[in-house]
Amino acid sequence: MASFGRFIRLAFGVCTLLLLVMAAPASAQQVNPTASSVKEQQLLQELNRIQGRVSIPDQRSGVLEQPQGREWREFRDVTLRWIGGIAIIGMTALIMIFYLTRGMVRLESGRSGRTIVRFNVFERFVHWMTATCFIILAISGLNITFGRPLLLPLIGFEAFSEWSQWAKYTHNYLSFPFTLGVVLIFLMWIGGNIPNRVDIEWAKRGGGLFGHDHPPANRFNGGQKAIYWIVVIGGGLVAATGYALMFPFYGTGIEGMQIAQVVHSVVAVLFVAAMLAHIYIGTIGMEGAFEAMGTGEVDVNWAREHHSLWFDQETARAGPNDGQSRPATEAAE
To answer: What sections of the protein cross the membrane (predicted)?
Structure first.
């Protein structure tokens, strides 16, 4: 009987232990992520992330999914498209409305036939290098956000795959001359782009875009100074965050790269919208404006109307007869 009693007590203890194990919280159980029966949702519930094993030294690259990743995916697939669509389409609509109602800003006094140097060769080279890189970067970057829903149905999977691959390579490599251009623009023109009281008065009078008013301005007016700082700050942000994405896990983990992508994409689409306005004013929006970066010389009447303070400084510095202001036919030669 004593042996039978010990057996009963032992059996009761084992049963009690099994019941305690079965009643333990699910979080205390070990989940084998390599088991074929384990589901993604179960892993997320147990571990709050999916992380595998990698052979490279940086083990952070083994994180396959985590909570912030799902929020980032929602931003990339939904929120970003709304932000980009509203910014770019909205700016395009504003430009069209302005052009249809205001038209090109014409020279009030007509062309004088004499020109004055506005930008030298080096300044124009840096501008066009940066501008060309920006346009290609903008097109290839927008493909990441809008290419699949807009372009893929039009050209098919094979063509879209080929285009996206080349767009990615182009985007990565052209980021380097673009960054160099932004740095050079910052250094070249910082002296003339510090805001001052003249810019406030220029803005109050609409920058000469409305009616026939032409407020005085220095070499760079208030609008051009705004574009300058958009290029410097916006270009710096997209460059810094872009390199963080191009060289992953150097100094940051998955969460940091997600933040970098959010900043990169939002700044980029707003950057594109701002440059649309800049391109419009520099081409069909204002008579004579393109010549400043085209040939480097502008008509004297254009300089007098749109940058009168700068024009007065240049003529005072150069003197009336030293060739600073010359006939357009001579400038063409």
So the answer is: 82-105, 125-146, 173-190, 226-250, 262-281
The residue written with tokens 């950057």 in the block is 271
- Domain-embedded: residue 319: yes
Amino acid at 149: P
Element (H or E) spanning 327, and its range? strand 325-327
What CATH number is given to the structural domain containing 233?
A: 1.20.950.20
The CA distance from 274 to 242, in Å, is: 19
Q: Is the entire prediction scored with pTM above 0.85? A: no
Per-residue pLDDT, averaged over 223-229, amounts to: 96
Q: What is the pLDDT of residues 99-121, one digit of tens each?
A: 999 999 999 888 999 999 999 99
Q: Which two tokens stand for residue 86?
A: 């509203």
- CA gap 248, 250 in Å, rounded: 6
- Compute the C-alpha angle 227/234/167, nearest 5°: 110
Residue closest to 188 by CA, chosen among 222, 232, 230? 232
Give the containing element (helix H, strand E) for 64. strand 63-65
Mean pLDDT of all residues in 206-233? 92
The pair phi, psi for residue 63, each rounded to 5°, is: -75, 115
What are the DSSP E strand ranges found in 144-240?
A: none
How far is the C-alpha of 20 from the C-alpha of 162, rounded, in Å? Answer: 59
Q: What is the pLDDT of residues 139-164, one digit of tens each?
A: 999 999 999 999 999 999 999 999 99
52 falls within a domain = no
Strand 297-299 to 50-51 pairing: unpaired
Contact 271/311 with Cβ under 8 angstroms?
no
Tell me the C-alpha distance between 30 and 153, whole Å: 45
What band does 19 get if pLDDT is binned at 50, 70 and 90?
very low
Please identify which residue in the block is written with the tokens 């919280």.
25
Residues in CB range of 309: below 8 A, 6 or more apart: 198, 216, 217, 218
Whether the predicted pLDDT of 197 surpasses 50: yes
Is 229 inside a domain boundary?
yes
Structure tokens belonging to residue 12: 């009761």
Tell me how many domains the chain contains: 1
